[in-house]
Amino acid sequence: MFDYGELRLLVLLMISERPRHGYELIKLITEQFNGSYSPSPGVIYPTLQWLEDMGFVTIEADDAGRKSSRITSEGEAFLAANKAAAQDLLTRKPPLGRGDAPVEIVAAMDRLKEALRLRLHAPGAAPETAAILAGEIDGLAERLAAGAQPAEATPTEEPVILRHKFDIRRRSLTVQQVDRLTPHMVRIVLHSEDLADFTSLGADDHIKLFFDGEGDKPEMRDYTPRRYDNAACTLTLDFALHEAGPATDWALKAQVGDSLNIGGPRGSAVIAPVFDWYLLIGDETALPAIGRKAEELGAGVQVITLAAVPEAADEQVFETAADLRQHWVHRPVEAATDPETLLAAARDIALPEGRGFVWIAAEAQVARALRDAFLERGHPKSWLKAAGYWVKGTAATSDKALS
User: Fold this and answer.
1) Alpha-helical regions (H) of 350-393
2) Bridge partners of 240?
3) N or C: at which end does the chain have fewer Cβ atoms within 10 angstroms?
4) Do residues 294 and 305 lie in contact, with contact meaning Cβ atoms separated by under 8 Å?
5) Backbone angles phi, psi at 70, to 5 degrees
6) Cβ-contact 369, 341 below 8 angstroms
7) 246-255 long-range Cβ contacts below 8 angstroms, 24+ apart
8) pLDDT at 123
9) DSSP code of 18?
10) Global pTM?
11) What is the C-alpha separation between 280 and 322, in angstroms, rounded?
């Protein structure tokens, strides 16, 4: 629908109205063209990076910690010089055949294009990969043209997770700030010039933290990037103080100037922005991902959070433009492996109308029980993601493949 130059101009025009973050732009463009075109994160974020490189926008964290793009005087001058072309883009009609297509079909086509791009440009892709993929697509086209019925597919099987892979890098960071966020949560802001190109597209991404272990082998733990700022070269991590271990010990003793080595993220699993509402459920270890996701969602999106914490003082406030409803349940730390507290609270939540995505993370048995409960309620399996962020009785273990 747009070439890269046109898309850059369209995005700049929308940013000129007010500062906007990536997923807000995706939603705005999708709405502008009635769902006939919806750019993927793999298109929008490089576009924003190009605009920043050209000096047309600045990208910085807003008060809620989301990275928003703001137009510069150079960007305003460029937009003024191309005003007629920019306004014309807003009236662009979709290519023949897409304008009246169902939103689900258009979204599926866009995901297919993104998947093909990632596959064909993957390191080590075999020369014959393109021919094999083309043959598979042609075969499907021939079957549909001949009137064959699609395989028994339902909306519940529709893929909604967009996966991105990154080159793995290790970075050495320095503690810049330490705050006791709640009685059972420490927030640490880290700094390094190496964070200028740090990328994390998914709210539940994880990085590896490395701590001194026995011998030459370090202890490793997975943590969610709660917030990051490429311009300031900072990374924020929240540490749930739920059990003794190298990460908890380090966080409790951390002081400004201390060092921490990290690796990754290896990649991002991004939920496609096609949902009307989100339900985010978890325990203390899931709060960084829940808070980040809630704060990254744009205006008009319904988001419901349900979190289990030891006491009322452990509740957190998430600043977001989304329509947020927060639910908290209290239980002692030693009861964190009992699913009944969260199950009972989840049963009392009335799910909104429309398409909704349910995200769950907690101790593995708890996450599995919650997953099963929503599947029994008839929630589509592909519209749900569950992960065991930790496993009872086993250190440094997770089970992120529950769904």
Assistant:
1) 364-376
2) 185
3) N
4) yes
5) -125, 135
6) no
7) 246/211, 246/212, 246/213, 246/219, 246/221, 247/209, 247/211, 247/221, 247/223, 250/211, 251/186, 251/188, 252/186, 254/175, 254/178, 254/186, 254/188, 255/175, 255/178
8) 59
9) S
10) 0.62
11) 13
pLDDT value of position 156: 40
pLDDT at residue 167, rounded to an integer: 84
C-alpha 210/C-alpha 292 separation (Å) is: 23
Q: Comparing C-alpha atoms, which of 228, 225, 235 is closest to residue 205? A: 225
For residue 75, the surrounding DSSP H or E stretch is helix 73-81
The answer to whether 356 and 277 are in contact (CB under 8 A) is yes
C-alpha to C-alpha distance for 291 and 298, rounded to whole angstroms:
13
CB atoms within 10 A of CB 206: 21
Sheet holding 20-21, edge to edge: 20-21, 67-71, 57-61
Using only the alpha carbons of the chain, give its radius of gyration.
22
Mean pLDDT by 10 residues, the chain (403 residues): 80 92 86 79 86 92 76 93 86 59 64 70 66 73 65 47 86 97 96 94 95 85 95 96 86 96 92 91 97 92 96 95 95 93 94 93 94 93 92 68 62
Chain centroid to Cα 77, Å, comes to 33
> By three-state DSSP, how is residue 103 classified?
helix
Query: Which tokens belong to 49?
Result: 């990076």
Helices (H) and strands (E) in the chain, counts: 11, 17
Residue 148 token pair: 């064959």
Looking at the DSSP assignment, which residues form a beta bridge with residue 327? Answer: 306
Among candidate residues 342, 349, 353, the one with its CA nearest the CA of residue 386? 342
Contact by Cβ (8 Å): 314, 182: yes
Q: Is the dihedral of CA 41, 42, 46, 47 positive or negative?
A: negative
pLDDT tens digits, residue range 371-384? 999 999 999 998 99
Smallest CA-to-CA distance from 61 within 181, 226, 300, 230 is with 230
In terms of DSSP bridges, do strands 356-363 and 277-282 run parallel, antiparallel, or are they unpaired? parallel
Instruction: Report the relative pairing of strands 323-330 and 356-363 from DSSP bridges.
Output: unpaired
